[in-house]
Each structure stands twice: as structure tokens, then as C-alpha cells.
């Protein structure tokens, strides 16, 4: 659906049920609401969240607020982009998922990341400019769950962009690569 109608907003989350997340994370005995919302972030859907009774100071609601704040920081590029799934992306470490979104006017690539590793070490992420039909991408910025923006070194090997994604402390993050 996302490939055919890239600009139709799709709402997903925990409202109708979040238990389907176990189909994606078979290695987890009991995936959480937070895991479900990380998946929504990863694939670029809009958040559909419910909680009753609402406890504004609960850790879950703080997680929701922080994840939505991360989305707000990348949405200008993300919402002007089309979901490309993992087309043009190289291998990632085990328990790491990365999805790429190509800006409709080829101005940027947005990569959403969910890193479920216990120790989130620096990692290399490769993107193929030819496959993604972009050129001249030079600058990378990592947007972290805890509100930081860090430079991401970008090197080139032919059509391959190599991004050195810094160590992070939370599961969800995003990298935007621009010309």
C-alpha cells in the first residue's frame, strides 16, 4: 500500500491492539507497547495511541511524548518522501532495522532506525544512490530519541554512501542525509 499510495497517511499503533508486534519480533517473549510504537515510527505511519486511564507522569506516556517529539523533528523531510522500505540499503547488525524514505524531489534520504540491541554500538549504514535515484548526498544528521542532533560522517564508494551512525542510548533514531 505504501508503495502505491505513498502520501496517504496510515495510522497505526496501540488503539485496536498492539499484540501483532509479536509477529515481527519473534525473539521477544512479550513485546511491549513501546515496541509497537517503535515499529510505527520505523515504517513512517502516524501514531494511534490509547491509554486509559491517562497518567501524564507515567513512563509509558513519557515514551510516547519523546517518540512523537523525535518524529516532529524529522517530519518535514519524512512527509515529503516516499517509503522505499529497505531498497538500496546494505546489511545492518542483528536486531537493527532500518527503513529508507526518498524525498520526492530527491533532496534527502530519511532513514528511520530501530535498534533493539542491548548495547547500541556505532554502526555503518550503506545506501545506494543509484538504486534510490538520488545524487550528491553529502551531509548526514542523526536525530536521537533523547533530543540530540549529531553529525553523521558520510563517505562515498562509487554509488554507495557509507554512514557512520554514532552510538545511541535508545531504540528509535533517524538519520537524514542531504545534498
What structural keywords apply?
single chain, 179 residues, alpha+beta, 6-stranded antiparallel beta sheet, 3-stranded antiparallel beta sheet, 3 helices, 32% strand, globular
What does this structure look like?
This protein is an alpha+beta fold and 179 residues long. 19% of the residues lie in helices and 32% in strands. It has helices spanning 33-42, 59-78, 129-132; strands at 11-13, 46-48, 81-83, 96-103, 108-115, 123-128, 139-144, 149-152, 154-157, 160-165, 172-178. The chain has a 6-stranded antiparallel beta sheet, with helices on one face. Strand 4 and strand 5 (108-115) form a beta hairpin. The mean pLDDT is 87.
SSE order and pairing:
Layout: E1 11-13, H1 33-42, E2 46-48, H2 59-78, E3 81-83, E4 96-103, E5 108-115, E6 123-128, H3 129-132, E7 139-144, E8 149-152, E9 154-157, E10 160-165, E11 172-178
Parallel strand pairs: 1-2
Antiparallel strand pairs: 3-4, 4-5, 5-11, 6-10, 7-8, 7-11, 9-10
Amino acid at each position: 500500500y505504501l508503495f502505491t499510495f505513498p502520501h496517504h497517511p496510515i495510522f497505526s499503533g496501540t488503539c485496536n491492539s498492539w499484540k501483532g508486534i509479536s509477529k515481527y519480533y519473534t525473539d521477544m517473549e512479550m513485546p511491549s507497547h513501546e515496541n509497537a510504537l517503535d515499529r510505527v515510527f520505523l515504517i513512517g505511519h502516524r501514531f494511534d495511541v490509547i491509554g486509559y486511564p491517562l497518567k501524564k507522569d507515567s513512563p509509558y506516556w513519557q515514551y510516547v511524548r519523546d517518540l512523537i517529539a523525535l518524529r516532529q523533528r524529522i517530519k518535514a523531510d519524512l512527509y515529503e518522501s516516499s517509503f522505499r522500505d529497505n531498497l538500496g540499503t546494505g546489511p545492518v547488525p542483528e536486531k537493527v532495522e532500518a527503513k529508507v524514505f526518498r524525498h520526492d524531489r530527491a533532496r534527502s534520504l530519511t532513514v528511520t532506525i530501530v535498534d533493539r540491541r542491548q548495547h547500541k554500538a556505532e554502526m555503518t549504514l550503506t545506501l545506494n544512490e543509484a538504486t534510490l535515484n538520488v545524487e550528491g548526498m553529502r551531509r548526514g544528521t542523526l536525530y536521537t530519541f533523547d533530543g540530540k542532533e549529531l553529525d553523521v560522517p558520510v563517505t562515498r564508494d562509487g554509488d554507495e554512501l557509507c554512514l557512520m551512525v554514532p552510538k545511541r542510548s535508545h531504540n528509535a533514531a533517524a538519520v537524514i542525509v542531504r545534498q
